[in-house]
Amino acid sequence: MATNHSLVALMRELAQLAALDEGSKASFRARAYENAVEAIASYPGDLSRLSERELTAIDGVGSSTAKKIREFFQKGTIGKLEELRAKYPAEFVALGRIPGIGPKTLLRLRDELGVTDVETLAAAASSAQRVRTLAGLGAKVEERASSSRSAA
Question: What's the topology of domain 4-87?
Fold first, then answer.
């Protein structure tokens, strides 16, 4: 059964994936989803009973987010989240937990070095030392990436 709590968890994931998709934690969509997370996490009532219009009356919930909330309670999932999950598998997203590797760096590692998970990152960083070949990345990032098996 869909609950406010499970909605909050999905919206947090949606914010994280939106930041990755747009290459910035400060992207408009990621911030909008984060604002919505705060709003719905603190909402005292049952969100499943609210219409889109009533949802947008909650400070921090816009019309696009209200549609996603209604979709969640009607279908049990959010289409945009499923789309982003397919584009950014969990193994890839986990790399964002490594200190110094944010959304832009993650995307560059994938696009320029073919990094898709902890193993491919560690391989690119260790003996091949390919991470330091990317502009703006150096030995320190490579060192963290080499030890990423335990961090991610």
Answer: DNA polymerase; domain 1 (1.10.150)
